[in-house]
What does this fold into?
Amino acid sequence: MAVQHRVRDLSLAESGRHQIRLAEHEMPGLMALRERYTASQPLAGARIAGSIHMTVQTAVLIETLVALGAEVRWASCNIFSTQDEAAAAVVVGVEGTPADPKGVPVFAWKGETLEEYWDCTDAIFQWEGHDGPNMILDDGGDATLLVHKGVEFEAAGAVPQPTEDDNEEYRIILEVLRRSLAADGSRFTRMAPGIRGVTEETTTGVHRLYEMQRAGTLLFPAMNVNDAVTKSKFDNTYGCRHSLIDGINRATDVLIGGKTAVVCGYGDVGKGSAEALRGQGARVLVTEVDPICALQAAMDGYQVVRLEDVLADAHIVITTTGCKDVVTAEHLAGLRDKAIVGNIGHFDNEIDMAGLARIPGVKRTEIKPQVHEWTFPDGHSIIILSEGRLLNLGNATGHPSFVMSNSFSDQTIAQIELFTKPEEYPTAVHLLPKHLDEEVARLHLDALGAKLTELTKSQAEYLGVDVAGPYKPDHYKY
Ligand code: NAI
It folds into this structure.
């Protein structure tokens, strides 16, 4: 049967395959999991609907899930983050050709419209011969949201009319669900009970899951992959430390050394971002709302400021908060000429792009895709990266393979846990067991030449741990 797909161009597959091959070399965790589990096929019978940035690293994840027995359908979780050659290579597969693809269905390309994005998200839930997937692998929670809203509106018998407060994207979601309901009034209601669980990649998606758990609306078990130590303390921090600078450089090629950069938020992403900018020689200022993170920033040597007090100084402003309205239209208008503004948090509501567009007389000029100059009536202008969407994936190619090998090993193990041990994970949000978190770290040490010290039996007894771990109590902060 032909492999369903909506990608830019299958002839890019060869270039994608070469990049995937090199990425595999840098993803020892995922490759070790392939070796360990290919024979036993723990994901046989799993139908995974995946929604994560369709990058080269994600291609290695997808092919690992398939090697472990899963069937997979994939969309990207952002309109700008797909690497078209990776998407093509996954569809074509190792055995196929562009004329005769033999890989995995992918619905993603760089530069989707929001309508296309939600159609692609919907497409990962359409499984011939089944009501839908039995697993979700999500990043930011959009795929999970679609199922939950679908079930909610099917129960109500109708999709509500958008209100004045609903943004453009939510109107589009309502439209997708209106069409779905008209075609099949119980599609999501039939699908949801078959879903054994979702594994969620990022801070913002996890936040949504805990909100649903609190409200009692969560429909299936969820694994909080983000808060595995080997995910958030590595991908969010060291990944952004690499890919923030990559994004700024590819977008602008402006020398960062000597400039003043403001990092909004000093959580895991903010810490990596601030360090990267300092590493380039920038003077880094930090804004925070949390006194603990503000104090950490101060102790790390950054000046903690309020954004409105430093607008005239800032050459670069980066949001890393996962919050909304962090940089307002007023802030944007007050920035110095040619200031660069970008977001590396998950959603595009950290920078008020709609408010910017409403400033009377403001003009938008495309310098190149995902780089826009906004000129104010007084003649000064600012540069906005990726239209306020995450710039490390919009302007560059996201985190490098080695760090994603940690995150995606966590994802793979989380999928195996939820799929094979449903009795251990009731409908709630769960964390990856610590021994598995430690295992993921262990899988990456050899490649870096790191030699781990082993506890003696008597040392282990003295510390009250097992020689083989876990080495820390759950409340340990790393
Ligand atoms: P976090 O919760 O560790 O850090 C966010 C920080 O922002 C917190 O310390 C919070 O106090 C602060 N904050 C919140 N509102 C603020 C405001 N109005 N002004 C200043 N500071 C404020 O979260 P984490 O893990 O750092 O993630 C941040 C965002 O980045 C999330 O949306 C997450 O999903 C996303 N993310 C993006 C990645 C990428 O590759 N672009 C990778 C990993 C996460």
Notes: The chain has a mean pLDDT of 98. Residues 202-204, 232, 235-236, 239-240, 264-270, 287-290, 293, 320-323, 326, 344-346, 390, 392, 399 surround NAI (CB under 6 Å).
